Amino acid sequence: MRALVIGASGQIGGHLRSQLLARGDEVVGTYATVEQPGLVPLQLDEPDAVAGLIADVVPEVVFLPAGWTWVDGNEDDRERSFRQNCEQPLFVCQQAAKLGAVFVTYSTDYVFDGKAGPYAEDDPVGPLNVYGEAKLAAERALLESGAPCLILRTSTVFGPETQGKNFVYQLVRRLRAGQPFRVPSDQVATPSYGPDVAAATLALLDQGARGIWHVTGPDALDRAAFAKLACEVFDLDFDAIEVKPTAELGQRAARPLLAALKTDKLRAAGINVRGVRAGLEAMRAEIEAGRAVAP
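^ that's the sequence the OP posted. Answer follows.
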C-alpha cells in the first residue's frame, strides 16, 4: 500500500508511519513544525502545497491525524478551530478522492454532551465546546461529501511518543519535578493506548471499513483514576496531585463529564485496544528500553 501520513511527527501519526513501514508499505510522512528525520515539510494552510504533494505521492490512503487539539484554545478562536479541524480535513479528503484514495482521520468523544455516556457510534451528538463542534462539523462534511473515508473517534490518547506531550508525559514530568498538577475528579473518558489506536486503524482499513468507528480502550474511568494508575505504574506519589471537580477548575471550555465511548462495533470486528494499566506498563517498558522519549 502507498500511504501518505500528514502529521507523522505527532502521536498517532508517528505510530501509523512506523507500523506501516514495519508492514512493508510505502509511506510518505509530513511534519508542520517539529522536524524529524525522513519526514517532509507541509503546512495544511497552503492548499496548493497540499494538493501538489497528494498528486505527487499518488497515495492509496491518506491519513490525517493532525489537528488543533487544544480545547481551551479552540474556545477562544472559533474561526481557527473550524479552519484547522473541519475545513482543512475536508480539503485533504477532496484531493485524496480525486485519486480514488481512502481518507482516514480522527475525531473525538467531545462530539457528545457527556450526559448519558458511554456512547455508541450512532448515539445522538451534542458538543459542549467549540472543539467538539468543529470536529462534528468535519464528520458531517466528510460523510456528506460521498468520498471514501474512515473517521475514528478516540479519547485521551496516551503512550510513548516522540514529542512527549500527552497527559501521562505531563503528569510524570511535573510530579518528578515537584511541580503542581491538577486533575478533574468527574470527567470520565476511555483512555486509548496510542500504538493500539494506530494498529486498530490499519486493521479496519484492511477490512475495508468506512464511516464512523469508536477506537478507544475498554476502561471507562475519570481523569483522577487514570492519574492514580499512572502514578502506580511510574512509581509516583498520587497524593501530590490536586484533585478537584470540573466546576472548580475554571477551564474556559465546557467539558462533557460522562463521555466514555462504547467499542462494541470495534470488538465485533475482532479488534481490541488494551486497557489502561496494560497500556501504561507497555509505555514504561518502551521508555526504559530507549525506544521512546523519556518524560
